[in-house]
Amino acid sequence: MNNDNMPLAEYEKLKDEFNPDAFDAAEWTELFKQSEARYITFTTKHHDGFCMFDSKLTEYKVTNSPLGRDVLSELVEASRSRGLRIFFYYSLLDWHHTDYFPLGMTGRNTGRKGNGRWGGYLDYYIGQVRELCRNYGEVGGFWFDGLWDKQNADWRLGELYETIHSLQPSALIGNNHHAVPFPGENFQIFEQDLPGSNTAGFNVAGVSSLPLETCLTMNNSWGYNATDNSYKSTEEIVQYILGANKLGANLLLNVGPLPNGKIHQEQQLRLSGIASRLRSRRLDSA
User: Fold this and answer.
1) Torsions phi, psi of 226, nearest 5?
2) Nearest to 186 by CA among 168, 206, 210, 164
3) What confidence tier does 279 reach under pLDDT thresholds 50, 70, 90?
4) In terms of pTM, does the model score above 0.85?
5) Which residue segments constitute the domains of the chain, with CATH numbers given?
6) What pLDDT sits at residue 21?
7) What's phi and psi for 60, nearest 5 deg?
């Protein structure tokens, strides 16, 4: 939508074609469990504003698509049955909502109207986070993104974090804003870089005393990209995990599912290969 300057009116039509009916939460979570993952972070809403959960605050959501299922509810249940904690990714940035105004650095050529009530958007997104806190049981934490689109705006983060901490007292909060952690945040995020490195160009905040997490793509894309076959080798990813471990950081390894809801075979191979290499290393050091 942003990269191709796709008009909002055209992008919205994709909702009526969205039908990843091969999605199987039990299959996903079993794959992740076998890969030795300890927790899952699922995208509940990305920058395009489409919600992958049954929000009562919008009609622009997965339960109004041809799939018609609350995939988040299914994934939460399957994760818990396998002992995996679940975190919710939520984009503060929204290219769809009419009250996301003034516009930020991105999504400027998608035909949105040049007006809107910023306070209305803040009420909306905090309301959605409140839904996520209340409607899906115990949450491991929240992973926010997109604040960098309007770095100096008042996002009412104090209210947001207090809402989460009051409704989900044990939930951890991280925000991928590429800045020194703000009050109320419980872990620091590094994107496509180990803590203390800045090959990506935006990890300039330094390393705090908070728990650390780095996130990494398997190829060069966060979402599914049919033309991106530049997959990192299993050994490359294992070495990245070991590097993160030496720095006391977790690795959040990205999976971009296929349009039908399955996990790409190349990504499955990486996950199984990583688990095999890590088990082998543990045996060798025993």
Assistant:
1) -65, -25
2) 210
3) confident
4) yes
5) 8-186 (3.20.20.80), 211-286 (no CATH)
6) 97
7) -90, 80
